[in-house]
Amino acid sequence: MKCKKVRWLLALYGSGELSSEEQEMVEGHLASCKRCRQELARLGEVPALIQSLHGDTWWADVSSPIRERLNASGAIRSPSQAKPIKAEKKGIMREIPVWRPVRISSLAVAIMERPIWQPVLASFIAVIIFVAAVLVVMHPWVGNNIAQAAGEVARNNSQVQTILGEGEIETEVVVIGEIALVKCSMRDTFDTPLVNVVVNTENMRVMAIHIETGTLHPPETPPYRPELTEEERAEAIAIAEADPYIQEILSHGFTLGEPYNSHAALGADPRKVVWLSFEGDIASDEYRGVIVNLDDEDVTVMWGGDLPSWWPY
Amino acid sequence: MAILVMERQQTIELLRWGDSKAWEDVVLQYQMPLSRYLYNMVTDKELARELTQDTFLEAYQAMPKTAGELNLKAWLYRIATNNAIQVLRRRKLISWIPWAEEMTIPEETYNSEDSLAQRELVRSVLNKLPGKYMAVLLLHDYQGFNCQEIGEMLNISPDASKKRLARARGMFRDAYEMLERRGECSEV
User: Fold this and answer.
1) Helices B147-154 and B158-187: crossing angle, nearest 10°?
2) A252 part of a folded domain
3) What is the pTM of this model?
4) For a pLDDT cut of 90, what percent of chain A falls above it?
5) Number of domains in chain A
6) Any CB–CB contact under 8 A between B26 and chain A?
7) Domain with A243 in it
8) What whole-number distance in Å separates Cα of residue A127 and Cα of residue B160?
9) Chain B CA closest to residue A13
10) C-beta separation of A197 from A175 below 8 A
11) Mutating which of A4, A66, A199 best tests the B interface, going by the most B Cβ atoms within 10 A?
């Protein structure tokens, strides 16, 4: 029998999760395969490692805050406040406290039946509609303000100005939740690099600066690091491809683009940070890729736009 | 503790009704295992405390909308897992490693025999896994649920939860060995 067939069962061996058939199949194979016996020894340690977490006895007592929250919202009456009734359901032979929700529909009907309330109700509804309309109209402005502010933060960043040189900086902003991606370039020129700035929209601070080095004619003395070495490229690809999270994404028809280096030479941070875009989704021109930190071999996924249904949580 | 002698379904009816005593019993019964589970998922005690509260409050609000028989424990764990995965997904998307908070492991963690260091290492490795694998590993190997129960909690088939557990253990082992190796290198 081929190892491939029993490989996934090995991870469950000894956990009481295999059927007797599967158990026999694994045992039969193990008797004749040294490699799988070694694999079993590796995997068999996992439950014990996870169980070592039991050594930590911390836990959170949330009973009082929950009681307070529920009482504050008036949602629950304590037993002393509630009016006891005899429970009618079979099996509940004790008096239970009762909280009955008020039926909004019957309340509304009762109010509407009184003529005096009708004009009051009408003006109240009118005010609600007006406020809602104002909010709907204002909404894009609120969003635009965040985008505008993020664009301004990126334009005024001294490092961005150093990279792009003097002149008017043009920005294109995409806001994704708490972060804004700002693409900065020089207006009317094609010989300066494109700089991507990530701004935290909650505190409007620059989180990262990424330079696209593949742009035409970089300045003579670049303020950024020149091309990556072959080893660094290979290392970045290897780190990205080894990450299970990335593997899941790649299994959905994406490939990793050419690695580019980024803000390593700005002087602010000596670490090497490499950008690899996800390629293959022709329908999308969103900012999607992986940032690999060569120093600590960590990866971060950037995914602009909506998350697909297959997203690996 | 009259509730304890009542049948499970009757407790559920009381909870749907919003009975404060019944809810208090639920919180007292589940806050310890749920908060520990969440702490291992998100590795942050304050966040775990918040998520535990949110789990109960969400359950309280959603309870009247449920109907028929309900496995309360599985349902609470499902809410907790979804909340934790949301947080992890958000963290994964917005944490920009170079400047933002880094997930580093203290040097001494690697080779120390100390069980605290060992736990920290296990948590760091767990945190490297995608949320759904982390959840299934913790639910099975830490909380002691079987794949049938986990399937119910995560709304997947028992077979799918078996495969997920197998994959999670493999991923965990690979990542653990990688970190261990790195620890050995740093010692050299």
Assistant:
1) 100
2) yes
3) 0.50
4) 7
5) 2
6) no
7) 230-303
8) 52
9) B166
10) no
11) A66
